[in-house]
Amino acid sequence: MPDETYTKYSKALAFRRIAAERDAALLIRFGRDLYRASLGREDAFYRDYGRYGVNFPTWIASCTAASPAFAQFLEEDGEAIGLVVLGCDERDPSIGRVHHFYIRPDHRGQGFGGVLDDYARDALKDAGASLARLNVTARNARAIRFYQGQGWEEKARRGGLIFMETRL
Ligand SMILES: CC(C)(COP(=O)(O)OP(=O)(O)OC[C@H]1O[C@@H](n2cnc3c(N)ncnc32)[C@H](O)[C@@H]1OP(=O)(O)O)[C@@H](O)C(=O)NCCC(=O)NCCS
Q1: Which of 103, 112, 117 best tests ligand 1's pocket when mutated (most atoms within 8 Å of CB)?
Q2: Which residues contact residue 123 at a Cβ distance below 8 angstroms, ignoring those fewer than 6 apart?
Q3: Ligand 1 centroid distance, CA of 108 (Å)
Q4: Does the pLDDT of residue 10 top 90, yes or no?
Q5: Which of 20, 97, 85, 14 is nearest to 53 (CA)?
Q6: Total domain count for the chain?
Q7: Does the pLDDT at position 33 exceed 70?
Q8: Alpha helices in 67-159 (DSSP H)
Q9: Nearest atom in ligand 1 to 110's CA
Q10: How many Cβ atoms sit within 10 Å of the Cβ of residue 47?
């Protein structure tokens, strides 16, 4: 499904591949907000990705190097409203990973997360995966409910994280 355009509520929704350097500012804004939603604070984003989050776009570039389909913006009428970041297990390519799903706060609760989930399943299957895994912080109740609604199953809990998986 990457790069296909379709419509929802008469607005054009499309996935767009990311150019990590050109899109750096937007990536950092979305990444910072993602950490805030997951952990309730942003400082872990700077801990993981350095001052100003400059290493976040670099990490995204390493994901797109594996496949351009692995990091994409979801755009509505040409404006980015979400981000999906995927990968495959290096040792076992039959296992796909959802690193991040992100929908901008002003677009949440309207079903756009389901569009990211559909995209992720197709992209990971195309990459050869038959199982997908993710983890989510135990405090992120809304995201956990969202994942359960999309058919993800909890497999374990450890260190404040819930590990979930789904067959593709
Ligand atoms: C998790 C996320 C991707 C889901 O996407 P979404 O488009 O909001 O998904 P949905 O529209 O299916 O809504 C998910 C739930 O949030 C509820 N919700 C309603 N209004 C909302 C709002 N303004 N903001 C957030 N969630 C809202 C929905 O009702 C739904 O709950 P329900 O299942 O009990 O009905 C998105 O909320 C998000 O980006 N959150 C912040 C980042 C994050 O936590 N990512 C996951 C961890 S990596």
Answers
A1: 103
A2: 1, 2, 67, 69, 70, 86
A3: 5
A4: no
A5: 20
A6: 1
A7: yes
A8: 112-126, 141-149
A9: 11
A10: 9
Nearest CA, atom 37, ligand 1: 108
**Residue 109 CA: which ligand 1 atom is closest?**
11
What is the pTM for the complete model shown? 0.92
- Provide the residue range defining the domain that includes 61: 5-167
State pLDDT tens for residues 100-148: 999 999 999 999 999 999 999 999 999 999 999 999 999 999 999 999 9
- Which of 61, 18, 25, 37 lies closest to 113, judged by CA? 37
**In angstroms, what is the span from residue 91 Cα to ligand 1's centroid?**
32
Pocket of ligand 1 (CB under 6 A): 34, 37-38, 100-103, 108-114, 136, 140, 142-143, 145-146, 149
CATH number, residue 91: 3.40.630.30
Span 61-98, pLDDT tens digits: 999 999 999 999 999 999 999 999 999 998 999 999 99
